């Protein structure tokens, strides 16, 4: 994708951006897009800014809702978070457990999918008793998928499991499979 916008300006009114900043802008635009969500089955997927129909859910066929445009890339830099933790541990901030945990969670979310699923909501959807977030994370990992807690919500997890894999994992973990 190319910005293209600068070239639409009269050439005597703007100076051209240097190529490295233009490349950075192009890369940033590539990380923008939309989050599609199915309110029937909780399936999600992302699409770029060139959003086109159909917007039917690949899992259940319902119409998907669109969120965005929004940033689809990482929300934090892992090494920067690591430096923050290291510096904080040597200072008075290090005793603030809540703050330190927040930075650890944010670091853990780097490279993970956009959005998250609430465990209690999914369990309710499939009619099984809810479970502690850590228990759900273990079950998802035992099933061979990646999963981390999100800093957005104490009951939320980010995972690369599909919605059907995730629901099946929760069913089995509650002995309902
Ligand atoms: Zn669906």
What does this protein structure show overall?
The protein starts with 18 loop residues before the first helix and ends with a helix. Strands 2-1-3 form a three-stranded antiparallel β-sheet. It is built from six helices and six strands. The model is unreliable at 1-13 (pLDDT under 50). It has helices at residues 19-30, 78-89, 97-108, 119-126, 133-142, 163-173; strands spanning 32-37, 44-48, 65-71, 117-118, 147-150, 153-159. The structure holds zinc ion (ZN).
Helix-strand pattern: HEEEHHEHHEEH
Provide the structure class: alpha+beta
Estimated share of beta-strand residues: 15-25%
Give average pLDDT, whole number: 88
Indicate the low-confidence ranges by residue numbers. 1-13
Based on CA inertia axes, which overall geometry fits? flat
Number of strands: 6
Bound molecules: zinc ion
Top keywords for this entry?
single chain; 177 residues; alpha+beta; Phenylalanyl-tRNA Synthetase, Chain B, domain 1; 3 domains; three-stranded antiparallel β-sheet; 6 helices; 6 strands; 18% strand; flat; binds zinc ion
In short, what is this structure?
Helix content is 37%, strand content 18%. It has helices spanning 19-30, 78-89, 97-108, 119-126, 133-142, 163-173, and strands at 32-37, 44-48, 65-71, 117-118, 147-150, 153-159.
Secondary-structure blueprint:
Layout: H1 19-30, E1 32-37, E2 44-48, E3 65-71, H2 78-89, H3 97-108, E4 117-118, H4 119-126, H5 133-142, E5 147-150, E6 153-159, H6 163-173
Antiparallel strand pairs: 1-2, 1-3, 4-6, 5-6
Zinc ion (ZN) binds next to loops.
């Amino acid at each position: 994708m190319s910005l293209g916008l600068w070239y639409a300006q009269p050439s005597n009114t703007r100076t051209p951006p240097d190529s490295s900043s233009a490349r950075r802008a192009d890369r940033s635009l590539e990380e923008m897009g939309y989050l599609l969500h199915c309110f029937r089955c909780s399936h999600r997927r992302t699409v770029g800014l060139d959003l086109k129909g159909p917007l039917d859910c690949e899992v259940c066929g319902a119409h998907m809702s669109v969120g965005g445009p929004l940033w689809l890339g990482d929300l934090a830099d892992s090494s920067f978070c690591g430096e923050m933790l290291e510096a904080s541990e040597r200072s008075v901030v290090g005793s603030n457990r809540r703050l330190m945990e927040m930075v650890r969670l944010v670091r853990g979310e780097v490279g993970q999918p956009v959005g998250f699923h609430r465990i209690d909501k999914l369990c309710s959807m499939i009619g099984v008793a809810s479970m502690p977030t850590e228990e759900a994370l273990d079950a998802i990992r035992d099933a061979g998928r990646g999963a981390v807690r999100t800093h957005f919500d104490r009951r939320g997890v980010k995972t690369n499991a599909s919605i059907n894999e995730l629901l099946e994992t929760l069913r089995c973990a509650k002995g309902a499979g």
